[in-house]
Amino acid sequence: MTELEALQEQVLSQIDKADNLSSLDEIRVSVLGKKGVITEKMKTLGSMDAEQRKEAGKQFNELKNAIAQALDEKKEVLADAEINAKLARESVDVTLPVRDERQGRIHPLYQTYDEVISIFGQMGFDVAQGPDIEDDFHNFTALNTPKNHPARAMQDTFYLTAKPGEDPSIVRTQTSAVQIRTMEKQKPPVRIVVPGRTYRCDYDATHAPMFHQIEGLIVDKETNMAHLKGCLAEFVKTFFELDDVPVRFRPSFFPFTEPSAEMDIGCAKGNGELKIGAGKDWLEILGCGMVHPNVLKACGIDPNEYQGFAFGIGLDRLAMLKYAIPDLRQFFDSDLRWLKHYGFVPLDIPSINCGLSINGGNKR
Ligand code: DAH
Prior knowledge:
Mean pLDDT: 91
Shape: elongated
Bound molecules: 3,4-dihydroxyphenylalanine
Low-confidence stretches: 352-364
Order of helices and strands: HHHHHEEHEHEEHEEEEHEHH
């Protein structure tokens, strides 16, 4: 056996034994690579005389071709084997049980927001929003509640640390601040509802330091108290999904309205139960009134030309009443079991839901 035949036999047997693509490639490099055995042999051709070169060149090429072909064939076999092994490894066991699909819930507060906004949306109100961190002017002064006014004591305000010489900012105690922000920018007619978080230093089963309100404001030339009553009476009927809900307006005091009132709805209380819409009892549900002329003036609106009404509703309480949730603090506990019980399945929501939504007026 010549030296070349022995080399060919040795390399072909290595190729035959290779059991994966990377060891096959190592063989290729060791034989045909820049410093491979055959490449080195090719380099010796230059120092041969013509007759020798012709003969040796032919033999080297035959050897090279035989090995290259063997490498190609083996490569195909190994690549196929690798794919088959991968397919076998990654096969899906269709007999495994199906995994539960987890579905989130809509928090009852946001469900209630959606419903309330839908109802006012259908009456023609737009949605306005404002910052949670407010200044004294928008939260109090422009709402006819100057510094040292006793009415400020009605709202246990959280003050932020002030820079020297400046008034401290506050976290807003009422969404009423957005009345001012809206009227500063927009001249009448104004017709808005303002959903939003509000903050006061208070904590028990029916009060939390952060709570939710929805404010309403209409300012126009002819707006009067009868409009206020009609609008709110209609709202409670639609919200509680009842044909009739008796309402009663009691005189009250808010610095930013004159006259001011609190609205109660008729209900029956007893045996630990509360039934809305019937019975001899009353339940306070919101504050309201005709916008005080000083509030209009603070926003550059002439009170001799325009008048309006406003109202403020505690959203947490509305949600508790409609969905029979006993303790306000549970709203903020992030307990998934609670949310599963009281929350709403998206796209499977009862009642209204066809008007504005809190996230920008999309229909569901
Ligand atoms: N801002 C009041 C509060 O937080 C609620 C309120 C009462 C808002 C009467 C109004 C209103 O717009 O007219 O207690």
